[in-house]
Amino acid sequence: MKITLFGVRGSFPVPGKETFRYGGNTSSLCIEFNDKDFVIIDAGTGIRNLGNYLIKKEEGLSDINILFTHTHWDHIMGIPFFAPIYSGGAKIHMFGPSSNDEQSLKDIILSQLEHKYFPVSAHELTAEVTQNQLSETSFELLGAKISTIRLNHPCVTLGYRIEYKNNTLVTVFDHEPYHHTIFLDDGTAQILEGNSPLSSFKKLNDRLMNFIEGADIAIMDSQYTKNEYFNGKQGYGHSYYEYTLWLAKEAKIKKVVLFHHDPVRTDAQLDVIAKSIENNIVENSYQFEALLAREGMEIII
Ligand SMILES: [Zn+2]
Ligand SMILES: [Zn+2]
Hints:
7-stranded mixed beta sheet, binds zinc ion, globular, 23% helix, 16 strands, Metallo-beta-lactamase, Chain A, alpha/beta, single chain, 7 helices
């Protein structure tokens, strides 16, 4: 499997001279199983470059599978600029959860293509778009086994486990630890106090731990530091990197990629965080490798 990160930023795109090394585009990654088979995860602004990469690589795009973690804007906003949707003969298969009962996954995503927002409307697309609405499930796609798990975020959100020829990739974003906060189905956050959470919600944390266990690569939410998280960021649906490293250790992950950087973070600040991650790994004697996600990063397993 070759994994390329085309967008690593959380919440909002932040291009500019202070973010160019880690990258300003929002979530989008490509997982290539071989020369022709691939899946995309999420369609943040990074999917624009991903689409150009696919077009350069292949003549006549046919089937394109996009797995959506959820429909928050930073994970879908690149769709109108994903060139293959304008390619006749391309078939775009969208997989993922819908975030409400009234609209399907496809309707939510394509609702960005209306003349009031964008010059092209959804019914003018030349590519064929289909959808497979997912909840917690497991299925085969292109010879890979794909499983999903519900995450803790203020919108129905799925983590993915992708197994292909003895290699495993998992994604855990966007997600907040159940120990401290739990989101109700209407998206409101309940911030947990006292001792009860550790026992009451251990089951949910353990369930996630089992789901990701033993993965070769885990791409995981680490938007905040512990200090930021406990000083006003609880209930936003994101993790802090100290927790993410601990979760990776408990789940026996081989390599963790810390992902979904806060949009306020400059390259210089991310360098400082990279250093504290190194220290955290040494102090805790963690035996795995941890990398801060960077746009353009390629990982081969
Ligand atoms: Zn996000
Ligand atoms: Zn989100």
